[in-house]
Amino acid sequence: MKIQKEMGMENFPPPMPQQLKPYSLVDGYTNLIRDDKTNAILNTNYNEYENYKYLKSIKDKENARIENLENNLEDLKSDINEIKNLLRNLANGSW
Description:
- With 95 residues, this protein is mainly alpha-helical.
- It contains two helices and three strands; from the N terminus they run αβββα.
- Strands 1-2-3 form a three-stranded antiparallel β-sheet.
- The radius of gyration is 28 Å and the shape is rod-shaped.
- It starts with a helix and ends with a helix.
- The relative contact order is 0.07.
């Protein structure tokens, strides 16, 4: 709640006269609103948003790590095939 106050989000969305209000509440949820212009659903809970960003960054790092490992494995496969071909050529006397 302290972070929300520091960021000025404790009253998000700001109270407005009904005819000017660009947001409407989502039934059954206290922290979700709908942007009436774009029909987008917005989460007003800052802590949930920060948690989402944190979890996404962890997942992105893990995906990058996996991709790096897969690339390294492909490089190793290529190197092994090259070594096998060199050994075959050496064994066949075509060196």
